[in-house]
């Protein structure tokens, strides 16, 4: 394959190899043109709200532990950006000193790379070649849609070279078929008895003031709605765990910058449920092409017996199903999420995928083994931490 030159004037980051040395590698993410990235996002083969430029530039600028990513990019012969994924080294991602690149965490559980829909295979091939030139032996794409157009393009390119991707872990998560009638969908998902109970809870909530659902769309509307969301998120269990966005100055700066910038292009909404003047639940929703992404939810736990998060999600479901521009909503939630799974009954297959860059490469086998060992060791530790947290929450 002929080498595709990247635009002049870009700076380059470096990748640690297995011996800990540094080699010339990739341009920094900040060197990618916002205009070119936006053009790619408009023509991408598969939507991903978390790799929109306004979102990812904000993450890369200040979000806790997520700054300073590099850009694994593909360019056409006319220097048009046709593929991109923000990446970090395997060492930075997992503290494994082996020569691989890993998709950078965009503060959302989806790392599907944007590829030009008309040149998806060429983009995938050029990105893999750029990774080789950077000294990598493998590319790890975390949290990608396994049955989407992007993975199909990478799989076809690998097949041409006598290779195949290796799924490191996979799960399914909830999504919403927004082409359906919302009331039919909710009735099928929850049943008449559960819906009746939720209506009863909503009527009880209305005793605190008329219940109404608000949608903030413009930058002027989104900015104050975000502050409401941040306050709600910081009032509950997320604050106890130290994961509320407002608890870290960098995270707060990122989300303020990202939501208002995306709202300029109609790519962010903040939805809020109120009882009278009191906000009881709020959520951030990203939009890209015909897809919505349910980012985060905050609730006032004083109203927990009325299921404010569920009530908001019911209204959000009706809102998205009524919007002809949206065909599908990705919950971007954990597998088996207890709130969203019973409501949104569609499922998306998501996984971490190891993409080898060379055939019969012992380094790839070593990378896969190291990642497998890390997963095996972290599983029990994560379950122990989760158990301790649950006990602490029950006793507080």
For the sheet with most strands, the description reads: 11 strands, mixed
Report the CATH architecture of the largest domain. Answer: 3-Layer(aba) Sandwich
Write out the CATH superfamily name of the largest domain.
Gcn5-related N-acetyltransferase (GNAT)
Secondary-structure content class: alpha+beta
- The helix/strand series, from N terminus to C terminus, equals EEHHEEHEHEHEHEHHHEEEHEEH
Shape: globular
Strand ordering within the main sheet: 3-4-5-6-13-7-12-11-10-9-8
How many individual helices? 11
CATH class of the largest domain: Alpha Beta
Number of strands: 13
- Straight-line distance between termini: 61 Å
Overall average residue pLDDT: 91
User: What is the total domain count?
Assistant: 2
As a whole number of angstroms, the C-alpha radius of gyration is 22 Å
The CATH topology of the largest domain, please?
A: Aminopeptidase
How much of the residues is beta strand, in percent? 15-25%
- What percent of residues adopt helix (DSSP H or I)? 25-40%
Query: What are the segments in which pLDDT stays under 50 over at least 5 consecutive residues?
Result: 1-12, 17-24, 392-396
Description:
This protein is α+β, with helices and mostly antiparallel strands. The chain is globular and about 65 Å long. The strands form 2 sheets. The protein has an 11-stranded mixed β-sheet with strand order 3-4-5-6-13-7-12-11-10-9-8, with helices on both faces. Strands 1-2 form a two-stranded antiparallel ribbon. The relative contact order is 0.15. It has helices at residues 34-42, 53-62, 90-94, 120-133, 149-160, 182-205, 219-233, 237-241, 249-264, 308-321, 362-395; strands spanning 12-16, 22-27, 70-75, 81-89, 100-103, 138-145, 166-177, 211-216, 268-275, 278-288, 291-299, 328-330, 346-356. Helix 6 packs antiparallel against helix 10 (308-321). The chain has 2 domains: 12-174 and 348-395, Gcn5-related N-acetyltransferase (GNAT) (Aminopeptidase), CATH 3.40.630; 179-326, 3-Layer(aba) Sandwich (Aminopeptidase). Residues 1-12, 17-24 and 392-396 have low confidence and may be disordered.
